[in-house]
Amino acid sequence: MDHSENDKHPLIIPAGSHIATLLVRWVHEQVAHQGRHITEGAVRGAGYWIVGGKRLVAAVIHKCVTCRKLRGKMEAQKMSDLPTDRVTPEPPFTSVGMDVFGPWTVVTRRTRGGCAQSKRWAVLFTCMSTRAVHIELIEAMSTDSFINALRRFFSVRGPAKLLRSDRGTNFVGACKELSLDTANTALTTYLHEKGCSWVFNPPHASHVGGSWERLIGVARRILDAMLLQNGSSRITHEVLSTFMAEVMAIINARPLVSISTDPDCPGILTPAVLLTQKMSAVSAPSGNFSSGQLFKKQWKQVQNLADTFWKRWKREYLSALQSRTKWTESRANIKEGDVVLLKDVQANRNEWPIGLVVKVIPSNDKRVRKVEVRTVKKGTATVYLRPVTDIIVLVSETE
Description:
This protein is 37% helix and 23% strand. With 399 residues, it is of the alpha/beta class. The strands form three sheets. Strands 3, 4, 5, 6, 7 and 8 form a six-stranded mixed β-sheet that branches. The chain has a five-stranded antiparallel β-sheet with strand order 12-11-10-9-13, covered by helices on one side.
């Protein structure tokens, strides 16, 4: 088999020369931005032998903007420490995370030809420290319905010091449906009167609210099982409200830590222990108890249960929060001036908008986890607040 002159006598080019870099870039474009193996083969097939070509090809592909746009990975940063309200012993529902989920179709009234139906949603409130749950039904995705649910929650559980929520499609992020914002006069006035503050997570950052997103999944599974056992597709508001109360009881009775096999510690650490001051749902034994005995002993038993809960909470539950299964390494911070690709779940990757980082927002540990990106569409500039997990750096400001 005869070999061509290019195969017999390839042109030798040192990898450090600018000619080699331009050549690799040109060949990389000719092979439609394929990987290192195909690009290096095309360079050799064209009659060029680049000394140390593997590293040069890898470096060129790594800096290729088109390859980053097509196959680049989302940015990541080391997982931040838990907020203070997650690790501080406080009365139940002092710091609260909340979200809206649903809807469900309920029968509102029966007519001669059938029945009229409407939708119901649920607001899930979870205590950030004790992990207890409270659920309230709402009839509409509006500010008034949410304020009524918030008033019921404060009336039953007491006022909260801090409220946390996300900006997802079913909450603040869907302002067109919910009309909820800190700029809303009625909502701001009500929160100010109650002496609490509201903290919003960045848009499209559901992982920041994992403490309540996880519980919404649990509530959905429990409710689905109840509706399946009910056997009827037509439920009323009263039935749905009863189901939600049972869902709330089941979630609050869940163990916070692994079940111990120690016979000296048979009790289970659950949020219901602190909420109900009862170790189990078993009814109280019958008997005659004088008011003096109740006054002298009952309060000690209640206080002992609360003290036991917080001691086990610090010893068993708090230490379990320190594990990090991902995002364990520090990454280089995104800088102002970086050209990035902005993720859009409603569009193909080739149609994702390109933007410029105009502001970085570092956390307390000086690591950047959210940025403001400016994009231009049809001559209109828009600034978006996004987590770093939703952007891909195309050209760094330092490159």
